[in-house]
Amino acid sequence: MPVGTLYVVATPIGHLGDITQRAVEVLRAADRILAEDTRRARALLSHLGIGGKPVDRLDEHASDADLARAAAHLAAGEQLAFMTDAGTPVVSDPGNALVRAAAAAGAPVVPIPGASAVMAALSVSGLVTGGFRFVGFLPRGGRERREALALVASTPEAVVLFESPHRTTDTLRDLAERIPRRQVLIARELTKVHEELLRGSLADLAARAQEREWRGEVTLVVGPAEPGEAGEAEGLSDAEIDARIDRDLALGRRPRDIADELSVELGVPRRTIYARVTARKG
């Protein structure tokens, strides 16, 4: 019996009209649907008039047994369609382990492209001048978050990231501390009834964010570095590095944040920079 195929199916990020005809055909022809959330999957299938199919849950907590079961269905010749809650699977969504398991089992893995919050936000940002970096959701706190923020600040290209509405204000503030002049697009509730696009500098939007409550899905597009900003720390003399540290300290920035950012930009171990910052502060 020939092995089945895994179809990785993009679904709408809001507006149900964004489902592609090919996606509908694949979902209709599939023997089994694998879904991040079975309730949402069944609601979409019902809207499309597709019924009578088994829908199995397969989310970020999928066990080895869940993956082995999916591989067994493929080995039995079943055609599987995988879908997440919204948008393109595996883009800040579960699915990597499933794709690896299918490939290891010798099953073809076929992308069914469609809606993507990343590409939708980029297309209306006016901020892409070449390549871009996608970082997904930033860590919630601690050193991992500081290093991620430093990476965004030191990236010369446009950066796309997702954020929870509960942390959007904090993220805008944290980025504004590092790159206040950088232009940004806040894309909220893309393709939905209350879609909203806000443009301006990080300093401006961080200040405006203090006066509002964010709701819904948020995608940020941080524009590319301005002339003279990208690679600012590269090739600096010791005196220039100390001057930058002094400037950041005078602005009230925390030593650990300064160290995180400079270590990324200079390619120097963080502990070395941190010791230098604390010495300057002393």
List the topology elements:
Elements lengths: L5 E4 L11 H9 L2 E4 L2 H10 L7 E3 L6 H12 L4 E4 L12 H9 L4 E4 L4 H9 L6 E6 L4 H13 L3 E6 L4 H11 L4 E6 L7 E6 H8 L8 E5 L15 H13 L4 H12 L3 H12 L1
Function: Catalyzes the 2'-O-methylation of the ribose of cytidine 1402 (C1402) in 16S rRNA.
Catalytic activity: cytidine(1402) in 16S rRNA + S-adenosyl-L-methionine = 2'-O-methylcytidine(1402) in 16S rRNA + S-adenosyl-L-homocysteine + H(+)
Pfam families: TP_methylase (PF00590)
Could you describe the 3D structure shown?
- The chain has 282 residues and is α/β, with parallel strands linked by helices.
- 35% of the residues are buried.
- Helices cover 42% and strands 17% of the residues.
- It is built from eleven helices and ten strands.
- The longest helix has 13 residues.
- A hairpin with a 7-residue loop joins strand 8 and strand 9.
- The termini are far apart.
- The protein folds into three domains: 110 residues, Cobalt-precorrin-4 Transmethylase, domain 1 (3-Layer(aba) Sandwich); 105 residues, Tetrapyrrole methylase, C-terminal domain (Methyltransferase, Cobalt-precorrin-4 Transmethylase, Domain 2), CATH 3.30.950; 44 residues.
